[in-house]
Amino acid sequence: MFGKDKTLWGEKTPLKSNYDAVIIGGGLHGLATAYFLARDHGMKNVAVIEKRYIGFGGAGRNTAIVRANQRTQENIPLYKEALDLWPVLTKELDYNLMFFNCGNLNLMHSEAAMSAARMNVASAQFHGVESHLIDAKECKELVPALNIADNITYPIFGAMFHPPGGILRHDAVVWGIAKGAAKHGIHIHQQTEAAGIGVDHGKIVSVDTDRGKIYTPRVLLSAGGYSASLAFKMLGLRLPISVLTIQAMVTQPLKPLLNHVVSSGTYHAYANQTLKGEIATGAHMDPWPNYTTQNTAHYIKHQAEALSEFLPCLRGVKFMRIWGGLADMTPDMAPIMEGNDPIKGFYLDCGWGYFGFKSSAAVGKYMAQFMATANCPEILKPFTRRRYQEHRLMGETAALVNYSPDN
Ligand SMILES: Cc1cc2nc3c(=O)[nH]c(=O)nc-3n(C[C@H](O)[C@H](O)[C@H](O)COP(=O)(O)OP(=O)(O)OC[C@H]3O[C@@H](n4cnc5c(N)ncnc54)[C@H](O)[C@@H]3O)c2cc1C
User: Which residues form ligand 1's pocket by a CB distance below 6 Å?
Assistant: First the structure.
């Protein structure tokens, strides 16, 4: 279908020996940064190098949930901007990213969780993000399939309702942004693995790949679950990141029954219905660090038990597909973004855990600004590793796992 010189997003390009910037990782963070480097800063002599194929990492494995109701004041504005960018990018890229603005319902299962959610809602509203606290009856009106009986393990007290959130199609986002970047002249090199980074007198000078050396003054490491091991192997940098597997599944297609994303930190499970009718579900993470993308019976059992309590109409429904990907988890579940410290020209964007899809568009925009100007944009300043030394952890854990008795 595509000749040997063509890809889904444009012509294949030769690997040059010099680029103004090299981006390691063809996930969404790498591709979006490349796109904005060209679009906003006229930097077109840029290579994205990807060891397998674009979207091989979390970018092509996630369940594509987007929302802006994070927990902390540093994080909410970034996610809000990312959420607002999806419809803009759909037009600008002339590519249907399949944004389905169905809204998110984040269930609460105790009075304490409702009180904490009140603070989350207030923070979101303060930053102009639409978010409301609703009671169990209102949850049932929005999602009639929900079980609001009080004889389940964790009865539903209410929810944070976030109408602007929703889902996209992850492959479409990867291909759409890659196409946009390629159109601006960015070179995307698949099957090209970064093996080393050259530093001279504290400055970036090159990247070694399995296809040859590339000379460059700027490198962005955005290799998702592989970032921490690469940073250590290539530069001796130790990042506070543990790598775990996130798994996801879809059921057989069903008639429409779930028109919002429903998540529960306490059950540690979320579900939404795809445009094909499948129920996509995930969240539970086996707690042992590993670099595999294997699936576990423990995970399947957890998801099945959780869903059959709060969405009992799913009992007996068949799971059709299951997969896994790597999650790079930091101690506060907030990412690490920084540059020129300690090596001039070296930039880092990693530690996204569960949140790297929803943030990717805005992060690409700001990382591009950072790389093009060498000045860190205000919005990114709180995200350096120094926050761990300075005891300024962000507390984004609770954006996902609201007061689960297991956490
Ligand atoms: C099952 C699952 C569900 C998820 N659901 C959601 C969700 O609903 N919403 C959300 O916001 N997030 C979700 N996430 C998280 C999200 O997918 C990630 O945070 C995000 O993809 C990270 O993007 P990235 O660009 O940093 O890394 P990735 O997309 O992982 O890309 C990194 C790339 O680097 C490449 N690479 C690695 N080493 C090298 C090397 N040496 N040289 C060249 N290339 C290299 C890899 O092959 C990979 O393609 C989910 C993740 C999983 C696994």
Answer: 24-30, 49-52, 56-59, 61-65, 193-194, 222-226, 230, 246-248, 282, 325, 327, 352, 354-358
